[in-house]
Amino acid sequence: MSQGFISPGDPGAEGRYRNPLGARYASEEMQRIFSDGMKFSTWRRLWVALAESEMELGIGISPEQIAEMKDHVDDIDFALAREREREVRHDVMAHVLTFGEQCPAARPIIHLGATSSFVGDNTDIIQMKMGLLRIRQLLVNAIAAGAEFAREHKDLPCLAYTHFQPAQPTTVGKRATLWLQDLLLDLAQLDFQLQGLKLLGCKGATGTGASFLKLFAGDHERVQRLERMIAEKMGFDAVFPVSGQTYPRKLDFQVLSVLSGIAQSAAKFSNDIRLLSHLKEVDEPFETGQIGSSAMAYKRNPMRSERIAALARYVMLDAVNPAITAAGQWFERTLDDSANRRISIPEAFLGTDAILSLYINIIRGLTVYPTIIEKHLREELPFIATENILMYSVQKGGDRQRLHEAIRRHAVKAAEQIKVHGQENDLAERILNDPEFGLEAGELARLMRADNFTGRAAQQAEEYLALYVRPVLEENSDLLGLPTDIRV
Question: Is residue 404 flagged as an active site residue?
Fold first, then answer.
């Protein structure tokens, strides 16, 4: 586990602070990506890539030294590393010394020509790439689950809201395409960042590559090849063309901005689910033995949606950290970024991982209540239908101005019955009984059919799913079917 993230089964865990992102919310996979084991074994893989590339470019390093290093990439003596760090007060040198203890033949050439940022920064980028790929898989599965929900309910009319006031109807499936569109925008941003992700490379203490130029006796071409070879060995196509000692800290902001965008989309979705739960039109998943409230036994609080909102708020605020860090760097580097980045970057990924896991769980298990949806729509349809009623009655020979005044008068009375006396909406009955309109019950029923007012909602849902969502899911079919585990 990474520093600060202790699994519930660890001895003595109850006597120490445990970050809830690890203990309660984030997946084991995302915790593995940002674990100490992943971090420090990646340091060692980078040292292997450096030494192997230097050997291949003519530096006096033997295959036996490389083989010895490879044999000890994953068996890290963490206790020794912690002891060395207490002595030298430098985490990279502590691990250089620890690796050297395990690789006595390779000890003289470990970290040759490099500075701390060679392992620190390159590993950060590698972990962010792994984290983005994990987030991408979750995002694609959230899109797939949302698409299935939208497809199933594309024709189900429901009351739409502006300002959370009743407005023209839409369909449940069309509303879901709004959630989907946000996620597809997030996927596009994520892919953009992934495609442009570069390693720092090996540029030395101030980014000039002076130590490597010295190592290669002034041969600029071999120094350039060294960076390209290391990048290829670590699975990257390119390195930053210029840098100080560190890679540009704007990269952290760009990556966390992607995570913030996902958090924004998920929070919007969760807010809609919470409001719909209040209206009793939907319920998020609720296990048989789940308790909604310690006091009110009847309650089914939308706690998973509320958790999305809470975690999303954290991730969105966390994206401010790299913005301030990037703005605050001095010349070729300062160290006031280090402690912040150790916390802010992993926690943004862990939080987003938890958010998307909850999103998938909710949308896959969301219960829809058509009867309640229809009831709410029926309560407002008489008001919504008045313009159509007016036009139809005019076409039958009525006076538009007299009819408009009659509708206004009946609407005021109907609203009074609802708001003052708590009665049902009787506007339709009032209009039907008013000879000014000359309507039969069948005519009025046809005018007030809900699908008269949903416009192209169902067709828009179909078109969006076919033209925009389906190609994404087909292209990423190998990522689908991801199980998610909500622990609490």
Answer: no
